[in-house]
Amino acid sequence: MQKKKFFNIAIVGLGNIGSYLFNFLNKNKNILSNKNNSNFNIVYVSAKNKNKKRNIKVKKTQWVKNYLDLVKKDNVDIIIELIGGAEGPAKKLVFSALKNKKHVVTANKSLISKYGDQLANIAEKNKVNLEFEAAVCGGVPIIRSLKEGLIANKISRIFGIFNGTSNYVLSSMDANKTNYKETIQNAINLGYAESNPSSDINGEDVAAKVKILSSLCFNSFLNQKIHIEGIKDVDDEDIKNANKLGYKIKLLGFSDYFQGKVYQRVHPTLVKKSSYIAGINGVLNAVILDGKPVGKNIIQGEGAGPSATTSALVSDISSIMRGNIKFPFSISNSKRKKISSGDISKLYFSSYIRLKVKDKYGVLSAVTKIFSDNKVSIKRVLQSPYKNKNSSSIIIITHSSRDSDIKKTLKTLVKKSYIIQKPKLLRIEND
Amino acid sequence: MQKKKFFNIAIVGLGNIGSYLFNFLNKNKNILSNKNNSNFNIVYVSAKNKNKKRNIKVKKTQWVKNYLDLVKKDNVDIIIELIGGAEGPAKKLVFSALKNKKHVVTANKSLISKYGDQLANIAEKNKVNLEFEAAVCGGVPIIRSLKEGLIANKISRIFGIFNGTSNYVLSSMDANKTNYKETIQNAINLGYAESNPSSDINGEDVAAKVKILSSLCFNSFLNQKIHIEGIKDVDDEDIKNANKLGYKIKLLGFSDYFQGKVYQRVHPTLVKKSSYIAGINGVLNAVILDGKPVGKNIIQGEGAGPSATTSALVSDISSIMRGNIKFPFSISNSKRKKISSGDISKLYFSSYIRLKVKDKYGVLSAVTKIFSDNKVSIKRVLQSPYKNKNSSSIIIITHSSRDSDIKKTLKTLVKKSYIIQKPKLLRIEND
After folding, report:
1. Are B174 and B85 part of one and the same domain?
2. Into how many domains does chain A fold?
3. Do A151 and B314 lie within an 8 Å CB cutoff?
4. Amino acid B1: pLDDT
5. Which of these ranges, A3-7, B65-69, B278-282, B413-417, has the smallest mean pLDDT?
6. Residue A274 to residue B312: CA distance in whole angstroms
7. Where residue A53 sits, what CATH number does that domain have?
8. Could you tell me the pTM of the whole model?
9. Cα–Cα 20 to 30 A to A175, which of A225, B250, B376, B388?
10. Residue A243 reports pLDDT greater than 80
């Protein structure tokens, strides 16, 4: 309800998301202006390749060849960065836009998770907004919820499914009983994975989101220390075993804060079939947090794609249009804390361990002795022979044990002559 | 990042929630001031009974005997109304506070669902905030999500579990195989239901929330037309039958917008056991919405209680402290639409119908003929005799049929001499 204002918007990057946003903003000018009591116009766009075929109508006067020219233009208020990548053009654009007192909206998780602290500093100094709702979990309004709807809360844990591609792959392997390789190929063919899906699959994408969320939850600077495992070692046999034991396998990101330290990690995780998170299939994302006073909160939605991402981008643009100037990471950089990182090796997990062993007398007894020597107590064992192969699979579910002790156990095991394959470790989450 | 400001807060109503909020604000002054870049102070409190034992330390100078005096005091910026009820003191306080240009934060769903349009008008005219996150689903930040995080979206449907007490009762009946009466008593004893739980149980509480959410989702004025059924007619036999058929029973609130009309309804509903909503047990609340471009979004959390409600109240207070002045219902009253209400009788549902019939030849055939005469097609029938009672239970699951046709069917049935008890109707949701 502040005085009506006019905002000139420039969009840089016109891939699927940029083009969708361009059309959406033009089509919904009226309702968005009403809701935000401000008007806006897309004054400029810029993209690497002007001549690429796109489903948008850009006026000649809207095109800017050199995207860096935008930051100097007086008639630009908000720059929307949809280039991607932590370095290169995206980095250059966002740094110089903020330095030139332009508001910035970005969907770039790599950039924010790496340079977010420096960028926030410039934004704060220059009294402009740096908004990145679209960088974390697409259509799930988690950033705005942390900064506004749940602002009262002291958060001790945030975790969930933060990557749609890897979740799609794991749920397809489970539903269709396909192996990892064919499932990935299928996901690429269907457009659920990029042709080079490595950052989605290797956990890097989730890690970037975990870092951003940690920082917002714990009022701290970004913390680069994080344990990362992707899903490429999860095979159909693990998924079958998990089902037999009452679990599903999900790639989860976690950030826990206790005893003055933050523990960030990303790894495939066994979750009970009956748990909420086990039911999140396909490209959906889900964020679960524990806060005081609110208790447990869950937000779920589509994690990626042009439409869900546009929902997030428009919420950022709207926030700027309403004059809701906020600190990018919820509090002033001068008040953010430096929190040290804890090591995953000190945490306790119940674990799933899969061994492929020679089928001979005394192996199980030797194996279980190694567990007990390393202070890892066994909850459940499942031994089954591989047909005609003179080998057996041994699945062990441990009681909650120190991660370093589990690792020591595996290190000892791997040297034994009766172990045929590198032992497989998957942690179990009982939340 | 606006200039630091100072806000004086007055709390009216010091029950469980008011007292919790009072302590919370005092304890968290520092972090909240940092996050909002503004300071605050609880300058006054007021409550009906000054001498009631409370777990808070109120200074002599903070007490105000007549709560209405607060609206005239120059050193009050924000009034927090925690009296409750659509009429009487709460109504007087909120109307006169807004008229006197005080920001208002309220948890009062009855008041907002009844007088929200008038109140929003005054707030808008006087450029103050009227915030009511705590009025709908406690710790679930649904209002702020609709107004900010999901602002881009055209919403076509919102539904979910909006009342913790009734959900607790239904899930307990299911889990403990207890009947309605003993479960309610148990809920009262455990503090999950008020000693007079009627508004929670009869659907009125859910209805108020549906009206508020509708208005926010569809940019319309409050619509008072709503179909309401509570849970008092759901008995253990229905829950047992539902389980047998693969369903759970939940009290759901719905608001759907299509073909220019809004359809608001509250009723106990059969939902598939495998559905997300079936797994929401106890006092939890869950809100599910369909929006464009975001797709389906879910937000879940604790629906009531002092701590969850305080999370919501503090998000409202913070929003005011950040100078984020917004229209109470997302857009200006001058832009809100008058949408007409559709009648539930015109909607189509698959339904569960339970009949108690005399155990004699030809009854089932007579019953099914009545269904077919009324254009209601039957999907499934389950007939089972009551032991030693010369009577049977007939459960019929219909295909999707017009609600008015189902009602006509029941009206015809009830007159038949072989029908021993008023037929029971529960609608099925296949979302």
Report:
1. no
2. 3
3. yes
4. 46
5. A3-7
6. 29
7. 3.40.50.720
8. 0.95
9. B250
10. yes
